[in-house]
Amino acid sequence: MSFYWNKIKGRIKELVPEAIFKVWFSPIEGEVIEDKLFLKVPNEFTKTWIKENYHHIIEQVLKEFELKGIEFLLSESHLPEQLILPYNPISVIGRGFSPKYTFEDFVVGKCNELAFKVCYQIAEEIPKGYLVYLCGNFGLGKTHLTQAVGNGLYSKGFNKVYYFTAQDFLNSMIKYLRSGMLETFKEKIRMECEILLLEEVHFLAGKEYTQNELVFLLDRFLDEGKTVILTSLKLPQEIQKMESSLRSRLSSGLIIKLGSPDFATRKKIIKYKAKKKGYEFPYEIVEFLARNLRGDVRQIESAVLGLIARSSMLKEPISLSLAKEVINELGVKEDSNQVELIVELVCKFFGISKDDFFSSSRKKEFTLSRQIVMYFLRKIFKMPLKDISKLFKKEHSTIIYNINTLEEKLYKDTGLKIKIDYLWREISKELQDKDSEVEYDHINESETSP
User: Fold this and answer.
1) Which of 19, 152, 163, 184 would be 197's cystine partner, CB 3.0–4.6 Å?
2) Coil, strand or helix: which one is 413?
3) pLDDT tens digits for 128-173?
4) Is the CB of residue 206 less than 8 Å from the CB of residue 133?
């Protein structure tokens, strides 16, 4: 009764986006036997993905066709090596795209909003002549957005997209160079590729020959109005052993820096990741996790999955005590220590590293950032001088001198006061401590005058 499956498949096609149908349902063989639907899938990954993400669609269809259940059968018609990438509908140079990286599955916040909008526009409108450089630390969404562009374009039938990591690109160059076919490789990219996605550009540091070849390729692409999206851990000017010609090209594009998720975005991520697994975390759990998980998205996802797994295995409800256990297992200290957060946000505000912050350097921005942290800790959090002295490895008198110096600057420099007001509001959002914010305003009025 495979004809019955075709009717069912037609109904599924009406209920899911076209791209989803093409990837997950179109290739599947099905049959109805004794009021039960049997689906033949290529591997366990596909089986699990369909069950977890489209179970509500399947249940609806089963009900409409008066079927009593569904069984998944693993197909033996595929070679194991063909099952490694579940989504590679078009043979291209470079890597395939993971189906989990879509725009719909990306949580947008203040830290990544611009990057999301630019990448979404490229996938939707296919603009010409874009050079976009996404920069940020591990786990902040660079790969997700890059592959989302590829997935979005493929869903529209646009297949002139090549996706490499920098290491892939280098390996391909070496391979074709050794075989005497380098020009064929380069010409294939130039002729067939309209949008180039190249990740981890920092990996090319010191690879002079490959850098020069990339310069020629970028020039050709931009002259012909093609689009390039590059990602890196570092800004172009921060990459060591980078040819000036390539650094210049990279710097000429739209550089977008992805930051760590802020408190509000972290809450959105936690709720979204939990909902995908069929859970709705209580308010206090979301608040607790968001307050403590200040790392990347992978850390947050790991905590959410760990909490769900622990709850399931122990057959206990999601609770604050379980959340604390997960946090401790991840090596994250609970938020009793607000010093680390304040130092982190002040460093981020001034664009300096923690190493520079705690160094002996007396550069203006380093000195000012230290004074601000001392001021916040002493005046707002009432931290004892001995603890502040221990943190900065300075005498009590030096701490007092720095705090007094900053107070004098605040009284004379309105611009600086505005910056510090803004900085404290950002810290307050992270701490979610309204009382501290009020106290800070009071201090400004009463203690910055001579």
Assistant:
1) 163
2) coil
3) 888 999 998 888 999 999 999 999 998 888 888 999 999 888 888 8
4) no
